[in-house]
From TrEMBL:
Enzyme's top EC category: hydrolase
Span of the signal peptide: 1-21
SMART domains on file: CHB_HEX
Name of the protein in question: beta-N-acetylhexosaminidase
Organism field: Pseudoalteromonas neustonica
InterPro entries with a match to the protein in the record: Beta_hexosaminidase_sua/sub, CBM2/CBM3_carb-bd_dom_sf, CBM2_carb-bd_dom_sf, CHB/HEX_N_dom, CHB_C_dom, GH, Glyco_hydro_20_cat, Hex-like_dom2
The keyword Transmembrane belongs to this UniProt entry's keyword annotation: no
């Protein structure tokens, strides 16, 4: 089988053919070290809302000159905005794949002398209003030399290689239509924070449990919890008790003894733990918690209910308390709003290390969340070791400069040319089993996602590498195997490549041409090949073995289904043969997605696993879901994300639920935590769904009425009449029992480190925990704004007073809100969204900082720097007045 390497062939074809390298390794290194490469946005208004004008500036302060004319040097940049300019200043700009672009000299290049600069002006897709849209680690290579990263771009401080955003046509996305975003300033923040007028005492903030219980009554007095207390528990609660005792000891210095309840204890101060399946009418995860001066009684409807009661008890303990702590006497009756309270975590695009996953699971449990949707496979990476398929992690777990992709995937998303670059790596099998066990002990189910048929480039390329390796081995084995021994003059080699093709995901003769949203040309599994389903079954089998070894059952598996490139498979002879067969129900390309979904659903059903998919993977068109009765599965979950109101498909949550799918609300406008916290160029994240999502916006999400969340269009125009905006009737929810719950999402294109990903998730995830567990009285089509603001004031005060500190103590890097501030009548006033969060100011441009406690006298023209502060290390981004 002759595998056609179209991508590689096209890459090689455009390279200038040189007799020898122009530069030594020392030259390459020196040029990249001493030359700065800087990106800049020139004009977002350049092409209405369809593109922006930018520049790349090379300032050559090295002693290495780039010669005039053609040469063998190449410059690579990561640009998530596909560059459309092909020729500028005698240089060719080529889109390689994904975000990778290459710049090479033509015969018209005039050279770049030492001490000189070169500005390359280019047109690119969409618009850029944030530093994080530009990726780090541009690099330079020549001949057979190793590539070298431009030193100023080898940084997570984007200001080192991105020019400032200052003008309107840099800070706004477009001017046709008008970008109505309110650009954030200290004054804008201050006024927004001032809208929360309810004052919450420290005592009330300490008593506010997150998520809020359904019913809580506080009694007079407190109980003093110290190490003299003992725990008595029902035998089945042993694992929960172990986690509880460890948390008390590690976080609060409380060492308590525990005994099963068949052992009689002296009349000491007791924490009693029991299970009563009839509690709350048998509703799972429910509990009661009663605190008296010498007794704490916890009863759960099941083990999870007892565990959540423990979390409520821990939530009442003040941050930083050690050894002895007073807690209020109270009575709680509590049950969850939804059975699905989740967080989606993408580390397929960028791997952030093992610790990030354990920290996420630990804190999800603290706030009674129970589903971790783990997106471990993507175009840019495969993050889990699979026995029998080492290429998935050997190749798919790493990105580097390897255009043939024999050693690694094509470098993407700012990783740069080396395997040591950011975003590389994977969980070993044993580490994942450890994580599963850790999650099981905290009542969190991990739902893995094997992304397909789109977004599958990492697995596709890994299986192509496997094919080449095994096919070469088969060729060597068959070298002397003659099948026509009677006629030696007509010797023919017998080559068995069945092992090589067993899990192949691509048709070598496929001529399909497509481009995905993320600018990939080759990321669709071939859904017409039986080996695709053999691959999915193999990975599912290995996942099942890991779950079993961890003592849990794999009951849900997500297969993606979203954003398949239009035009995929139409040029595949294997697919065309399917179209020609009148007996298989596949008449053309439009039938292939439902065909794929049916095969995967049946495959999973045989293994006792419920499938899940993103909404667009379950739609024939904009409004019609795949026929539900085509799938044998009792449960089929659909993550509904696309509520860009003016796009007219935000009713899919109800359409899919009414059609019989089990819906998990995952809406982009309120629940996507890869979006910025505020509309400011220094905030990390994409902003395609909404210009920003802060903790309050997520808190205000109303899952029981999807349409009630329609606040703004993408231009930030207020929505007064959603039906008029969409232009057709909006279906009502006929089967509310099919809304399982909700989850937050974080996608990691712009997120390369553990600190970055945790800061994007925390503290916004607390709002998801709140809404998924507790329905607030103010939630309705006509929101009770006064009640909503009071609820937010209590929630945010608790976050500022204790939750942020507890999270930081657990090693979680947080996003601290940038303060608001004004100078009125000679007085400096500062606030934040979270009452009791410390703020600091500097009157000497950051040379020294003072804690803000009350308005201070300054002149109206005084330059003031502001920041939030949690401890000596954790500070917010700095903002300036004047």
């Amino acid at each position: 089988m002759d595998f056609k390497k179209r991508t590689l062939a096209s890459l090689i074809a455009i390279m200038p053919l040189m007799a020898q390298a122009q530069f030594s390794q020392t030259d390459v290194n020196n040029f990249a070290k001493e030359t700065t490469l800087t990106f800049a946005v020139v004009d977002n208004f350049h092409n209405k809302d369809a593109g922006f004008l930018g520049t790349i500036t090379l300032n050559n302060q090295s002693d290495v000159a780039l010669p005039a004319g053609e040469s063998d040097w190449q410059l690579y940049i990561h640009s998530v905005r596909k560059i459309s300019t092909e020729l500028v200043a005698g240089l060719n700009i080529e889109h390689v794949n994904g975000d990778l672009h290459r710049i090479t000299p033509t015969k018209n290049f005039t050279g770049l002398a030492s001490g000189k600069s070169l500005v390359l002006e280019f047109d690119a897709q969409v618009w850029v209003v944030a530093y994080s849209d530009f990726m780090p680690r541009a690099f330079f290579v020549s001949g057979d030399n190793k590539p070298a990263i431009f030193a100023n771009t080898d940084s997570e401080d984007m200001t080192q290689f991105v020019a400032p955003f200052e003008r309107e046509n840099q800070l706004r996305r477009y001017n046709e239509p008008k970008d109505l975003t309110v650009l954030v300033t200290p004054k804008v923040r201050f006024e927004r924070n001032q809208q929360t007028t309810s004052q919450v005492s420290q005592q009330d903030a300490l008593k506010r449990i997150i998520p809020k219980p359904q019913k809580v009554e506080f009694n007079r007095g407190t109980a003093t919890l110290d190490s003299s207390w003992q725990i008595t528990f029902q035998g089945q609660l042993k694992n929960e008790v172990m986690v509880f005792m460890q948390d008390l000891q590690d976080d609060y210095g409380l060492t308590l003894k525990a005994q099963p309840d068949h052992i009689k204890l002296a009349k000491e101060k007791l924490i009693s733990l029991k299970v009563n399946p009839q509690l709350a009418g048998g509703k799972s995860e429910s509990y009661t918690l009663e605190i008296d001066d010498d007794r704490i009684e916890i009863v759960g409807s099941d083990n999870a209910g007892v565990f959540y009661a423990m979390q409520s008890l821990l939530n009442l303990l003040p941050a930083n308390s050690q050894g002895t702590v007073d807690i209020p006497q109270l009575e709680i009756e509590d049950s969850p709003r939804y059975t699905w309270r989740g967080m989606h975590y993408d580390n397929g695009r960028n791997y952030h290390g093992k610790d990030a996953m354990f920290k996420l699971v630990e804190q999800m449990a603290r706030y009674k969340m129970n589903k971790l949707h783990w997106h471990f496979s993507e175009d840019e990476g495969w993050r889990l070791e699979i026995p029998g398929l080492p290429e998935l992690t050997d190749i798919g777990g790493y990105r580097c400069f390897d255009l043939e992709e024999k050693e690694c995937l094509l470098t993407q998303l700012g990783t740069g040319p080396f395997k040591s670059g950011s975003g590389n790596g994977y969980l070993t099998r044993s580490e994942f089993i450890e994580l599963l066990t850790f999650a099981k002990d905290r009542h969190i189910q991990i739902i893995p996602e094997i992304e397909g048929p789109g977004h599958a480039r990492a697995s596709i390329k890994a299986m192509e590498a496997r094919y080449h390796k095994l096919a070469d081995e088969a060729q060597k084995t068959a070298k002397n195997n003659l099948i026509n021994k009677k006629n030696p003059g007509k010797e023919t080699q017998q080559v068995d490549i069945s092992a090589a093709t067993q899990y192949l995901l691509s048709d070598p003769k496929d001529t399909s041409v497509y481009m995905t949203v993320q600018n990939y040309k080759d990321n669709s599994m071939n859904v017409c090949m039986d080996s695709t389903y053999a691959f999915l079954d193999k990975v599912t089998y290995e996942l099942q073995q890991m779950y079993r070894e961890a003592g849990v059952q794999l009951t849900n598996l997500h297969f993606g289904g979203d954003e398949v490139g239009a035009g995929s498979w139409v040029g595949s002879p294997i697919c065309q043969a399917m179209f020609a067969d009148p007996n298989n129900g596949v008449a053309g390309a439009a039938d292939l997605k439902p065909y794929f979904t049916q095969r995967v659903a049946k495959l999973l059903e045989k293994r006792g696993i419920s499938p899940g998919a993103w909404e667009d993977g379950l739609m024939y068109d904009r409004t019609n879901p795949f026929k539900r009765d085509e799938f044998p599965n009792k449960t089929f979950t659909a993550n509904v994300w696309d509520n860009i109101w003016e796009w007219g498909v935000a009713d899919r949550a109800y359409r899919l639920a009414n059609a019989g799918y089990q819906v998990i609300l995952s809406h982009g406008t309120h629940l996507y935590f890869d979006h910025p916290y505020e509309a400011h160029p220094e905030e990390r994240g994409y902003y395609w769904a909404t210009r920003y999502t802060d903790t309050k916006k997520a808190f205000n999400y109303m899952p029981d009425d999807v349409y009630a969340n329609a606040d703004y269009t993408r231009t930030r125009e207020p929505i007064d009449n959603l039906e008029a905006l969409v232009g057709r009737p909006l279906p009502k929810l006929e089967k509310p029992e099919n809304i399982l719950g909700m989850q937050g999402q974080v996608w990691s294109e712009t997120i390369r480190t553990e600190d970055q990903v945790l800061a994007m998730i925390f503290p916004r995830i607390l709002s998801v925990a709140e809404r998924a567990w507790h329905k607030a009285p103010w939630e309705s089509e006509q929101v009770d704004r006064k009640s909503q603001e009071k609820d937010w004031a209590q929630f945010s005060a608790a976050v500022g007073l204790k939750e942020l500190t507890k999270l930081a103590n657990a090693g979680v890097t947080l996003n601290l809100p940038v303060p608001g501030g004004v100078i009125n009548n000679g007085k400096l006033e500062i606030n934040t969204p979270f009452a009791y969060l410390n703020t600091e100011y500097s009157l000497d441009n950051g040379a020294s900082w003072q804690q803000y406690t009350a308005p201070i006298s300054v002149s109206e023209q005084q330059s003031v720097a502001l920041r939030s502060s949690l401890n000596s290390k954790l500070k917010s981004r700095i903002t300036h007045i004047n």
